[in-house]
Automatic annotation (TrEMBL):
Protein name per Swiss-Prot or TrEMBL: TMM8A factor
Membrane topology: Multi-pass membrane protein
EGF-like domain residues: 455-494
Keywords, in A-Z order: Cell membrane, Disulfide bond, EGF-like domain, Membrane, Transmembrane, Transmembrane helix
Organism from which the protein derives: Melanocharis versteri
Gene this chain is encoded by: Tmem8a
Length: 732
């Protein structure tokens, strides 16, 4: 046999602490057909700085779709099917880099996904630039060993083969046809080269993660051994590996035979469905009534052939709506006739390669009036790759190499729903059959009407009122995840264990918005001291900060007067410009220079915020530059007057020192104390401290300006005029 090795690599990704699925870094690989060995090379590394500590990286694997993970231990939505993912842990302790290998023999061909993440996020809000987070990098490479000339086992034809040694197992494959109800594999004529007892082990199927349903068969002696499989995967190559259990130098000769039991499908009025599809898309056409006679004959033949067929196929149309959004429509209407003779089968096509990033929702509703037997039950099964053709309580909805998802409806519980999170790329089937507690003979003539709704959605229920559905991308692959808020958690934001109450949400909104009213004293002080430009900036900041935080709330207490991004930008701009104009006002430079610096600094701040809105230097840069200008101006004033500036000790004790203290406390709260849990009151404290510090730090008005004399500026009836002109008298 000729083996070919192939190598696939993807660029490294920076890992994040886990708070929702978007923090997990996804790697997408495609394993080719006839692969006999798959090896993952997992490389994890961290930075060398003192902020880098020991860390545990969790890596999840899954075949066919992204892994469904739950590192936070939250609840999944009701009716959702969850099977734990296969995962390993990689520890970075003293070593800067860790290399791990994961081997998978006879892997399933198709899409494979790897998701890696760090432990749960601490929840602290870090200001960008104040601290340097440690970079943790992860890279996954894939090696495959592929057999180029794998022998094909033809159905019904015995094939002799020789296993050379235990170190070199024999690989063959057989193609499973469509509508295969069962497969029987038989191994016979087992002879060793040393004339000893023959011992071989046969592995049928490929390994899939997190669960593998590979079937094993051990044959000893010359006795024929066989294995029967129900519902093998349709239209797929089934890999078979035969390995010798004898001595190292002994070869084994065997003869293999594979046979299939094919199910004869029956279609319900396919001609009528084709005509109805054309009419629904193109409208009624002249002469369409002429097809009623052959349609009636077709329906009669389908009814007659229902008893001789093993399944009734219901035609389904796949309707693509959007990215990872599909709706399935039955041509014969939403109601499906279900009998006890043979299951009704619906094909849900999810094999495009771009459908595994959403949630498959299947809803079954029983029409109670259509069931004549009160104790009858309609059993349903949703399975991938192949349908379940015999539904009963003992089979538990399983096929040859997979485990399906059971559903059931009856007259007491007429509705059932199933949510498959990240369904694997494959053909999915919905099987429906009528069951009676005392045997199928009891309801051989009964029939039930079941309404089926099936669709693929990016996020189930659009993540609810406390979540946001986000479309994620890894290269060309798209998948969706829910980002929860207001303390809600879970896959679809349905876990209310840590959820905030409505009262808490209202309190948070009131604190974050009404705390901005503390700018009113600063505005009043600025107006009283004739700093009208500064008062305008404070008014702008108060207005947009109030309505930005009213729009930024995660819960139900939300009010947005304009676009969220616009409100956020205006809030950030007003905050930085307020600090800028306050410090320049304290510098007491000439008016023309002050206003030039006002305008120039505001333009530069607007540009820097557009480049990086959350960068720390967008605030620290203008502050430091304005402080340099202020210190320079104060030194100049002090040198010119030959004494300390400001000269009044009262100015220092009662205004400057309290204002500076409040400003430093505000910066400390903003940079080091805010977390996701305490944000609504720590950030409110930031609003109050900054506004109060501005009121203390504003300098007094110029000495030559008089205070506002409102009684003289308001005219009422009479106006007292003062004549300042000097009378000139001629002295004679």
């Amino acid at each position: 046999s000729l083996y070919v090795s192939e190598y696939f690599s993807q660029s490294a990704q920076k890992l994040s602490f886990y708070s929702w699925y978007g923090n997990a870094k996804l790697f997408h690989f495609h394993v080719p057909e006839d692969t006999v060995l798959l090896r993952w090379l997992l490389q994890a590394s961290r930075g060398k700085g003192p902020e880098c500590t020991s860390m545990e990286i969790t890596v999840h694997f899954r075949h066919g779709a992204p892994p469904v993970i739950n590192p936070l231990g939250t609840r999944f939505p009701a009716n959702a099917t969850v099977r734990p993912s296969y995962n390993i842990s990689i520890t970075l302790s003293s070593a800067v880099q860790n290399t791990t290998f994961v081997n998978v023999t006879t892997p399933a061909a198709g899409d494979w996904f790897i998701a890696a993440h760090l432990p749960e996020a601490a929840g602290r809000i870090e200001v960008k630039g104040f601290s340097t987070p440690c970079p943790y990098m992860f890279q996954a490479d894939m090696f495959v060993l592929r057999l180029t000339d794998m022998p094909v086992l033809e159905p019904g034809v015995p094939m002799p083969h020789t296993v050379v040694s235990p170190a070199k197992p024999l690989h063959v494959k057989v193609f499973v046809p469509k509508h295969a109800a069962g497969m029987r594999f038989q191994l016979s004529s087992c002879v060793t080269s040393e004339q000893r007892a023959c011992a071989v082990r046969v592995l049928l199927g490929s390994i899939t993660l997190p669960q593998s349903f590979q079937r094993s068969l051990t044959c000893t002696g010359s006795i024929n051994c066989s294995l029967a499989l129900d519902s093998p995967p349709w239209e797929k190559w089934l890999q078979i590996m035969v390995e010798s259990l004898g001595t190292a130098n002994a070869s084994v000769s065997v003869e293999m035979l594979a046979s299939f039991t094919v199910c004869r499908p029956g279609s319900t009025s396919s001609f009528l469905n084709f005509i109805s599809l054309n009419q629904s898309q193109a409208g009624a056409r002249p002469g369409a009534a002429g097809g009623s006679a052959p349609a009636a004959g077709e329906a009669a033949r389908d009814a007659a052939g229902q008893r001789s067929s093993c399944l009734q196929s219901q035609p389904v149309v796949r309707e693509d709506l959007d990215v990872v959004s599909v709706r399935y429509r039955l041509l014969s209407g939403p109601s499906v006739p279900v009998s006890s003779l043979s299951p009704s089968l619906l094909l849900l096509n999810l094999n495009t390669g771009m459908d595994s990033g959403g949630s498959l929702v299947v809803s079954v509703l029983l029409n109670k009036t259509s069931v004549s037997l009160a104790n009858a039950t309609v059993a349903a099964c949703v399975s991938a790759a192949s349908p379940v053709l015999s539904l009963n309580a003992t089979r538990n909805c399983s096929t040859a190499f997979s485990q399906g998802y059971p559903l059931s409806v009856n007259t007491s519980s007429a509705e059932a729903m199933l949510i498959v999170l990240y369904p694997q790329t494959d053909d999915w089937f919905l099987s429906l059959q009528l069951l009676c507690p005392q045997g199928q003979g009891e309801c051989s003539t009964a029939e039930a009407k079941v309404t089926v709704f099936a669709y693929l959605t990016p996020c189930f229920n659009d993540c609810g009122p406390y979540g946001q559905c986000s479309l994620l991308r890894r290269h060309g692959y798209l998948y969706a995840g829910c980002s929860c808020k207001a303390g809600w958690g879970g896959w679809s934001c349905t876990d209310d264990t840590k959820a905030q109450t409505v009262g808490t949400q209202n309190l948070a909104t009131l604190l974050l918005t009404l705390s901005n009213l503390m700018f009113l004293p600063a505005i009043a002080v600025a107006v009283y001291r004739y700093y009208l430009v500064e008062a305008s900036v404070y008014t702008y900041t108060m207005f947009f900060s109030t309505f930005y935080h009213a729009c930024d709330q995660p819960g139900v207490a939300v009010m947005c007067i304009m676009d969220y991004d616009t409100l956020q930008y205006c809030d950030f701009l007003g905050s930085v410009v307020s600090i800028w104009v306050t410090i320049l006002c304290m510098a007491r430079v000439k008016k023309i220079l002050k206003y030039v610096l006002f305008i120039l600094g505001t333009l530069l701040i607007a540009m820097s915020l557009q480049l990086d809105r959350r960068g720390v230097w967008n605030m620290m840069g203008p502050c430091l530059f304005a402080l340099v200008i202020m210190v320079t101006a104060w030194v100049h004033h002090g040198a010119k007057r030959r004494h300390c500036y400001p000269s009044s000790w009262k100015r220092w004790v009662f205004y400057l020192l309290p204002g500076i203290t409040l400003a430093f406390i505000a910066i400390s709260v903003y940079a080091f104390m805010e977390t996701n849990e305490n944000y609504y009151y720590t950030h409110s404290i930031w609003h109050v401290l900054v506004a109060c510090s501005v009121a203390f730090l504003l300098p007094p008005r110029d000495k030559h300006k008089k205070p506002w004399a409102w009684s003289q500026k308001l005219t009422c009836r009479y106006q007292i005029c003062q004549n300042d002109r000097e009378e000139l008298y001629a002295v004679t």
